[in-house]
Amino acid sequence: MDDMEEVPLKKRTTFLGVMAFLLGILCIVMIFMKPVAFFIVTVSNWFIAIFVVAVITFIISLLGIANERERNFFPIIGFIISMAYIVFWIIFFLLILIGVM
């Protein structure tokens, strides 16, 4: 019993991965949904709320990807969704600045 082999880590989906995936889906739903008023989110700051959800999804996805015991499927999907939305707004504002739109 001198040679104790290390037990491999069992990868599983954790709350962090599921949360990243669900927030990514929420971000997509909010994009295509008519702006409505929730709690402190009004119609005028609807796009800011979507951007905040995308940034939170980005952070949670990175935490889920960095977690060793996490299956990376759900956090990667959440990461892709959040990055797509953030990159869209960066391109949109760059096009406005150079006068294309």
Automatic annotation (TrEMBL):
Keywords: Membrane, Transmembrane, Transmembrane helix. It comes from Listeria weihenstephanensis. This is DUF3810 domain-containing protein. The lineage of its organism: Bacteria, Bacillati, Bacillota, Bacilli, Bacillales. The keyword Transmembrane helix applies. The chain crosses the membrane at residues 12-33, 45-66, 73-98.
